[in-house]
User: Fold this.
Amino acid sequence: MAFYVLRRILTMIPTLLVISLLTFIIIELPAGDYISNQIAALRAAGESASIAKLEFMRSEFALDRPFLERYLIWIGFWPGPHGFDGLIQGNWGWSFEYDKPVAEVVGPTLPLTIVLNTATILFVYVVSFPIGIYSATRQYSWGDYGFTLVGYIGLATPNFLLGLILLYFSNRWFGLSIGGLMDPQYIGEPWSVAKALSILAHLIVPTIVIGTAGTAAMIRRLRANLLDELHKQYVTTARAKGMREARLLLKYPLRMALNPFIADIGNLIPSLVSGSVIVSVVLNLPTVGPVLLNALQSQDQFLSGFVLLFVAILTLFGMLVSDLLLAVLDPRIRLGGKAPS
Amino acid sequence: MNVLSVEGLSVDFVTAEGRSRAVNDVSFSVPRNRTVALVGESGSGKTVISQTIMGLLPEKAHVTGGRVLFRDPATEGDPVDIAQLDRKGPTLRAIRGNRIAIIFQEPMTSLSPLHTIGDQIGEAAQLHRGAGPAEARELTREMLSLVRFPDPVRGLDAYPFELSGGLRQRAMIAMAMICHPALLIADEPTTALDVTIQAEILKLMKDVQETLKMSMLLITHDFGVVANMADEVVVVYHGRVMEQGSAAQLFGNPQHAYLKALLNAVPRFGMEPGERLVPIRPIEPHAEGFLKSGRTRAATPGTPLVSLSGVTKRFVTRKAGMFGGKSHALLALDDINLTVNRGECLGLVGESGSGKTTTAKAILRAIEIDGGEIRYDAGAGPVDVSKLSGADLLDYRKRVQLIFQDPFSSLNPRMTVNDLLSEPLVIHKVGTPEERAERVRELMRLVGLDARFLRRYPHSFSGGQRQRIGIARALALNPEFILCDEPTSALDVSVQAQILNLLKDLKRELGLTYLFVSHNLAVVDYIADRIAVMCRGRVVEVAPTRELIENPLHPYTRALLDSVPEPDLDAPLDFARLDAGRASEPDAWPHPYRLTDGMTPTLVETEPGHFVCAPGLAGRAPLSSVKEAVS
Assistant:
């Protein structure tokens, strides 16, 4: 088992390298870069005074080098203008738009992004799990139809609309401030219990809004998986042993139906981040989503590259967690065995 | 005293289409310590009866009449009417798995793949005997040794996917037995197993019955199993009891027409040459039109059509490792030498994993071989199949066709019969659309199906009808060589007889050559002219059918023949001889048949046309000395 964990972690390294290369190719796909666009704009406006400074910055950030070299410098495998100084050395790059290091731009948003994502995933699982089981075991009952209807509404409603509605009611009924991740008075204040509670209260609406679609999809999936398993022969075997229905359900078919459920943890993360951009903008959440959107629009390449890579790492981590959980749950994966035919 | 009495039982299924009666006024009883066989074809309602007794009927099934009385001999109490009990209630739960237990057909799917054998078996003891985890484990270990698990202690922690089919079925039996039930229901317990393992499991069930003094209700469609196991027989058809009585009565003097017909449809050893099975619904194929045309091929019957020489195929199975990991080569075909003559039917027999299907695939060129040569004689001298390409390969594909085992998964459910039958013609660009339509109608007539069925989809046909569609599809291109891969093993006996006769007639009418792959020796005996026996990727014996059945030389062939249960009370299985149980281990065969890894499986000719794999005799040229050594 320890070997398996080690192997999974080691195989993440080449995967990450490939992802970083792909990311770099994608963010460099639009013609030019942030600074040459600036230079072009200044030229058009006839202001040539600050061009020299920008030219200096171009060489300072190695933007005048060939593509592969730029990539290797960004990662930190190649000496740039200041020696080895890339991602693996801990330098996340420079944001031209904000005129600050990337670390300072995204730094405050990262913990909140992780907190919000974790909360959303937990929400998706906690809600969809019991409902999925209920729907599968009481197929075509009123409850099943009811949850199906609610689920489809959840899938079909635009997230930002739902967000606005929920914000309105939470403000009206519970007096929560509109938007943001905490009441305005706590912004910039040191940490306190009241501040943490305020953050938790403000997390509820975004979690529900971002998680609804995922929850609805997950309920459908768990219901379908479980329905498939409920008619398998081994369930009949267990029933023939004289087991109680509830115990039987939990011990046998549910465990089989769990596999796809767990394998989805990794897939959920990128869809949550990219799906939540509009919600974050509408709800004014200080997460990484709006930052990414801005960076992509203004071709702030190091910033957008870093955010994309960050999401990829989150995804890989989610995949690792789901793979390890699967190995724990399913001996066929753990023992790498195949049934002799 | 009767442990179980079913009295006038009727079960209805209520579906969207309406109400249908699956079991109609069925009565029979199972006496103490006796075995009663419930015999019938698929759809006869025998499984519904067993589900009723276990209280495992699906939601949409309703008991509409009759009683199922269970009298537990251990408590001597009043009988319980199971049909009246709540299916999920505590009274029935206390009986189920405790006093009445069941074994299912499919050992592969009957156990949960995520839990150890020990966990799943011991569970019943914890539920009914109040055993703690440690005690349950000990009881399970005892049961595993009772069902003769090779290593009971290790078996406890094994997962089902680590075990072979035979061992899984043993585990199932252990699970059913752990509470020492008064009644065991065995629902086709050996249908999915190889014939040698079937014999072992049957013996095991008899022994366990002896030890635990219980009654058994054996559900099967195999009269060979019935003859060997049952004291009494109940024959059901369309949910009704057709005939019942002692095994001696029913086999000796069957009364009902249905039972007579069924018994006539079962292939037996030692049938007269030219004797035909009598299917319940026979078909008479008539070749005409294009199928008849172009049949005047120059080549004469009896000359080699396909010859395999030294064919070797390795499968590499990988165990997960860091990067790639350990690989393990499995020799699927080891130096196969085999010839199929034009106009004959060569039967290829062996248990699962013996390489018979791989051989068929290699001939089809569905897989590439690693060594040796497969030569095919299309009329202009033998050609190496592996070197064919382009138009030659396309021509080869037209000449060689395949009939599959499973008539359900081998037909695309989204295509009409017309699409299925004309697809080969479209692929090979045969004829105009009008000619194709004519051909398709001809094919349907040939296999005894109405041309009006052409617009239907496969799901509206029965298994036998689907298999006939599969045969028609194989014939669409007017091939000369057909590989039949277990074409009847998924079918009922009466349908099997129909398909076997159809194949026989088609062979005669169209001058076809067959390679007939099967694990059922009686079937091969009926249809084949010569038989080749395979074991562990080697050909161990080849001989003309009669010669092989009457005078088998190789120990594996003998074991195979010994383990076929015959539908004849006078020829019971010799369980004592089966005890060795290692007949399919090449290194356990006696000299001169012993084969160890790396040894060439040399075939030696003992009689003209009778070859046996005996590496110990390789090089001894004169026929007579070889004969002496093997006799």
Observations:
- The CA atoms of residues 281 and 498 of chain B lie 7 Å apart.
